[in-house]
Amino acid sequence: MNNQFLSRRQALALAICTCLAGAGVVHAQSTTGGLNGSVPAGGNESIVIESGTGFRREVPVDERGRYSASQLPLGTYTVTLMRDGAVIDTRKDVTLRVGASTDVSFAAPAATAGDATSLSGVTVTGTALPNIDVTTVDSRTVVTAEQLAKLPLGRSAEAIARLAPGVVNNGANFQSDTGRSVASFGGAAANENAYYINGFNTTDPLNALGGLQLPYGAIDQQEVYTGGYSAQYGRSDGGVISQVGKRGTNEWHFGAQVLWEPAFARAHQDDLYYTHTPASAPAGNLYQPKSENRTWTTTVSAYAGGPLIKDKLFFFVAGEFEKQNRRTLNDVGSNTPEQKNDYRSPRWYGKLDWNINDSNILEVTGASDKRESSGTRYNYDFNNRQVLNAIGPDNNKKTGGDLYIAKYTSYITDNLTVSALYGKMDSKNYDQPSGNDPTLARIDDSPKQNPLLNGGHAIRNNQVGDISSPGRGNKSTNFRFDVAYVLGDHTISVGIDNVKSRVEDFGTTSPGPGYIWDYGFTETPNAPISNAPGRNFVPAPALFPNGQSGYFVSRNITGSLVSVRSDQKAQYIEDKWQVSDKWLLSVGLRNDQFTDYNPFGEAFITQTKPQWAPRIGASWDVNGDGSFKVFANAGRYYLGLPLSPATGAAAGYISTQQYYTYGGIDPVTGAPTNLTQISDVVSGNNSYGVPPDPRTVAGKGLKAEHQDEFILGFDKTLGQNWVYGAKFTRRLLRSVIDDFCDVDLVSNKALAEGHTISSTNSCYLINGGQANTFTLIDANNQPYDVTLTRDDMGFQSPKRNYYSLEMFLEHSFDGVWYGKLDYVFSRSYGNTEGQARTDTRQAGAAGSVDWDNHWVMDYANGVLGNDHTHVIKAYGYWQFAPEWQASGNLQASSGAPQICLGYYGPDHSEPVSYGSTFHFCNGQPAPPGSQGRLPWTFQLDLGLTYRPNWADQKLAFSANVFNVLNQKRATYRYPSSEDKPNTPNPIFGVPWYTQDPRYARLAVTYDF
After folding, report:
1. What is the pLDDT of residues 559-580, one digit of tens each?
2. Residue 43, SS3 per DSSP
């Protein structure tokens, strides 16, 4: 055994040592892999590479006995060493890993066909050795289709991504359009990630929350990048989720699967209760009876793949249909107390691969990822927990969409490869209510009604939610052109990466007559409802009839309907230089340009000057045998704005309120009667529906959000089957974009400088925490500039600092078991989370309350909403008998910071009309992290699979149990402590989101 191990180790050492200088070019978000290696000296040698699809390339061996082949389609290959036209040696069953260069060397005698196995391309005899890829400098986790079939996982790209270190679920339950919970990477906001399918950027153009994904069974490999990726790619300062779909081969394959998540196997959620019960609450302190919720899901899927023309043309198709039935009890003030919905998720994937000849291949991909829902709304008796009459149909919703991609690759010479990719994506965001009564104003916050006027029971109606356009949706195109040239020890890559996006008919309007009634209450009726200066001042209700008890109501109007677009371009150059047999240096430079257009097609952000993003990385094969790698990486990453700011600050939307006291409540509709107006129309963000001049929307010379990242780490083998390592990561946010709404500050500076002002914006887009120059329009319609320093604006410098130490231990699959253990210690702290804000549940890009004015930023510095100091992950599988396999996935995470927001200062004032959003709690400063932490969460998922020999192991029965311990700990508590100044918020601290309770999934699979 020892002698066998030494011979394999020596072979591996020589193979990896000698192959380094010929490493192929492979990059993040790619759809290909590479091969490289060394051969014994011989002269007139070449390497023939053949796949199961008939794809064939022959590459030369250089004078030093090295070869390299890059941008190969993923698949299983046979690699043959030729000398003078004769076969010398062969390595079979070499499986490529996406984005990596796989070593296949011929420095040792070939194994016999009967016992040859492959571990990332290194052919050995007997048990495979752990693999350390010494040709990469990035940080990533690759999960294969084989692992997906074995591990107990949620069926989404984000659930897979959470296996990677540094990736955590977003505690505020931010979700994509298709209902998937998104994740945070390395301290970044959850909408700062990029999504890819087969190299095409599928990221949501509106808010960057998620992207279109493949059917689960169609995933060949999924890359999860947590840092350090190539200059070829950008538009992310969080992480990257890149899926590569399966493809057909010369062998026919068919299969089908049925999955069932029954309601009887799902534990109940816990009810939610008011922390300060309103007088008109309909069921005592009950806020939401979540224990009555029920969910059950059925999924069917099938696939087929094979040759249309052997060795030339191949296809692979997969379809998946998921149906989920859900009963949901909403809060006691909702206009939809109960709803029963059917969610239908049809997904499909198809791919054609055409080997035109040995030098040219064409790939065509189509995919669809959609979600549709419909249902019925019901009245509900919260006291007796009984369903009452049906109100009518729930909204009909259709989200997600289709994409089509064509990619052409030409191996022009042995050293020159050219590829071009073009794709289009079209997605819908259809959300149409049924039963809109044009005469009925919706009632919000009915539990805050005056109990003397409603008989002690809240009166509401069943008007629908806000109304959107039937044509609302997104469109994107992505064009890439890449050239790779091998010049001695250098592999030089250049190319372009362009994305155009458009959002159509975005926005909503209030239902019924175009407004809603929102009830409110204050325990200090002699104090102003809002003491914001100027036109947003709202006086004390006690100064008006029927207001002495502190009850009031506001008439709210919202409305917008716009179509906007953006154009994002990039160019890059990169050199991978094999400095020596032990040292690899990767140096790249990327230049991004971003242009955003308002609804009238006029550019309001033009970030077209060079935005240089250098990337540099190094890999050191310490021992020269691939057993110990030290690597480092440093880079800058620019983030283009999604389109949501173009629909807001650049568009002129309406969001206004007008306050009244009332002397009665209509017993049928819940509308207030005997009204006394106590304020003019107000708007916290001056959102009165006036489209701004595009020259005035953004600060002059607005810089794109960008971040610098530094990584240092090592990987090392331990014995035959183990690898361990550690990595330190440091991320520093250098610039952030958000809206700034202290319009009077800009106007007063302009007036002090002697200018006239014809109009002002509702808000401006600025670089938060930095000096900004604003463009205003004078009485003659001429522009002029006004500059405010950071001190003028009352801001500190922007800060989002993240550091982490990751340690891992991995046992490669040895025919019996596989396992990996990760521990990450990290801190994410500063005064801004970036494009979103977890603690206030504001996922609209660059649209949170951060940087709106200096009051909301006072005491903002602290640990951020996605900070989890300790995260432990362990997963693996065990083939404990020929027909039986067990699997598990454990994730334990320390809690995010508990947040308390309130009115401003010890006097609970409101210097601007922003309500309970300031960093004060009970009148005292409350920076993030000062209120303690949410609890640790523990998630244990277990699986068991039976593949009977009597079915030739083509049939499988499996059972997975998720959250075995049935923990339901809070991941988000409502942060606003006051409803009005000195008036406790009834739901402050209520655990809005918790871990999903225990549930089970049963499956039957057949593969032929």
Report:
1. 888 899 999 999 999 999 999 9
2. coil
Q: How far apart are CA 727 and CA 771, in angstroms?
A: 36
- Least confident span in 304-318, 406-420, 689-703: 689-703
**Rounded-to-integer distance, Cα 260 and Cα 445, Å:** 38
Neighbours of 648 (CB within 10 A): 27
For range 692-699, the mean pLDDT: 90
Q: What is d(CA 271, CA 889) in angstroms, rounded to the nearest whole number?
A: 28
- Cα 701 from Cα 607, distance rounded (Å): 8
**What are the pLDDT digits (tens) for 500-526?**
999 999 988 999 999 999 999 999 999
State the amino acid at position 601 in one-letter form.
Answer: G
Tokens describing residue 411: 């191996």
pLDDT in tens, 41-73: 777 888 888 888 888 888 888 877 878 788 888
Q: DSSP readout, 287-325? A: EE-GGG-EEEEEEEEEEEEEEEETTTEEEEEEEEEEEEE
In this structure, is the dihedral angle defined by the CA atoms of residues 678, 683, 686 and 688, taken in order, positive or negative?
Answer: negative
Q: For residue 363, what pLDDT band results from cuts at 50, 70 and 90?
A: very high
* Rounded mean pLDDT, 867-894: 97
Please tell me the predicted confidence (pLDDT) of residue 107: 66
Give the amino acid at 171: G
pLDDT value for 541: 96
How many C-beta neighbours within 10 Å does residue 719 have? Answer: 10
Question: Beta strands of 164-293 (E only): which ranges?
Answer: 167-169, 183-185, 194-197, 200-201, 219-227, 240-245, 253-261, 272-273, 286-288
Give the strands of the sheet with 194-197, arranged side by side. Answer: 139-144, 219-227, 240-245, 194-197, 200-201
- 93: confidence class by pLDDT, cuts 50, 70, 90: confident
CA-wise closest residue to 337 among 303, 380, 390, 373: 380
Answer whether 459's CB lies under 8 Å from 670's CB: yes
What are the DSSP E strand ranges found in 330-445? Answer: 338-357, 360-381, 386-393, 396-411, 416-432, 442-444
Q: 24-28, 73-77, 453-457, 879-883 — which is least confidently predicted?
A: 24-28
Average pLDDT, the chain: 90
Position of tokens 């016999």? 112
Rounded to two decimals, the pTM is 0.89
Closest Cα partner for 587 from 600, 602, 576? 576
Instruction: Tokens 């074995």: give the residue.
Output: 150
Can you say whether residue 505 is alpha, beta or left, with left for phi > 0 and alpha for psi between -120 and 50 degrees?
A: left
Q: In the chain, what are the helix, strand and coil shares in percent, each to the nearest 5?
A: 10, 50, 40
Give the helix/strand (H/E) hosting 569. strand 562-578
Please give the full DSSP string across 847-889, using - where no structure is assigned.
Answer: -SSTTSSHHHHTT--EE-TT--SEEEEEEEEEEEETTEEEEEE
DSSP state of 901: B
Secondary element (H or E) of residue 160: helix 157-161
Contact at 8 Å (CB) between 499 and 238?
no
Torsion of CA 155, 160, 161, 167, to 10 degrees: 100
Residues of 916-951 as b/e, b for ≥16 C-beta within 10 angstroms? bbbbbbebeebbbbbbeebeebbbbbebebebeeee
Contact 646, 621 (CB under 8 A): no
Residue 335 token pair: 């206009």
Section 600-618 average pLDDT: 95
What count of other Cβ atoms lies within 10 Å of the Cβ of residue 358?
12
| Cα distances (Å, whole numbers) of residue 278 to 336, 458, 822, 979 | 19, 10, 46, 11
What are residue 848's phi and psi, to 5 degrees? -80, 175
Q: Go through the chain and tell me how many residues it has.
A: 1008
